[in-house]
Write a structure and sequence with these properties.
This protein has three helices and four strands, in the order E-H-E-E-H-H-E. With 90 residues, the chain is an alpha+beta fold. It has a four-stranded antiparallel β-sheet, covered by helices on one side. It is globular and about 35 Å long.
């Protein structure tokens, strides 16, 4: 099951993102369930959120993954949406 995590950073949280980026990327690598991922960018080109596509068994697994993400643990996000997603192109 493909799940999209659509995350918006808290205003002014760029330093929190940078400080936790290595741990976030290590978590992505060690869990092995991320099909695609990358940051959203603001009008100045600075990171301001995340899109993560997970390939997991169910929504519960996606919620668990999101809760254990170092970015979430650091309190980076203002908002997180977890949506089932259907790949059509690509």
């Amino acid at each position: 099951m493909l799940i999209a995590l659509i995350c918006t950073d808290k205003p002014g949280a760029l330093e929190t993102r940078k400080a936790n980026r290595d741990a976030h990327l290590a978590y992505i690598k060690e869990t092995g369930v991320v099909a695609q991922a990358g940051p959203f960018l603001d009008s100045d080109g600075a990171m301001c959120g995340s899109l993560v596509i997970l390939d997991v068994a169910d929504l519960d697994a996606a919620h668990r993954w999101a809760e254990h993400d170092p970015y979430a643990k650091a309190g980076l996000f203002q908002d997180v949406r977890i949506e089932q997603w259907n790949k059509v192109i690509g």
